[in-house]
Amino acid sequence: MTTSTSPRGTDALAQRPYADVLIVGGGINGLATFRDLALQGVDVALVERGDFVSGASAASSHMIHGGIRYLENGEFRLVSEAVTERNALLRIAPHYVRPLQTTIPIYTTFSGVLSAPLRFLRHGGGRPRERGAALIKVGLVIYDSFSRGGGRVPRHEFHGRKRSLEELPQLNPNIKYTATYWDASLHDPERLALDVLRDGLAAGRDHARAVNYTAAARVEDGKVVLRDLETGAETPFAASVVVNASGPWTDLTNAAIDHPTSYMGGTKGSHIVLDNPELLEATGGRELFFEHSDGRIVLIYPLKGRVLVGTTDLEHDMADPIVCTEEEVDYFLELIANVLPEVAVDRSQIVYRFSGVRPLPGHGDVAPGFVSRDYRVESAPLKGTADTTVLSLVGGKWTTFRASAEHLADRVLEHLSRQRVRSTRGLSIGGGRGYPMTERTRKQWLATHEGGYGLERAEVLLDRYGTVAADVIEAIAIDDDDEPLRTLPTYSTGELRHLARTEAVVHLDDMLMRRTSIAFTGAVTAESAAEVAEAIAPVLGWSVEKRRLEVERGLARVHAADPAWPAAASASIPTSR
Question: What is the pLDDT of residues 446-465, one digit of tens each?
Answer without folding.
Answer: 999 988 888 999 999 999 99
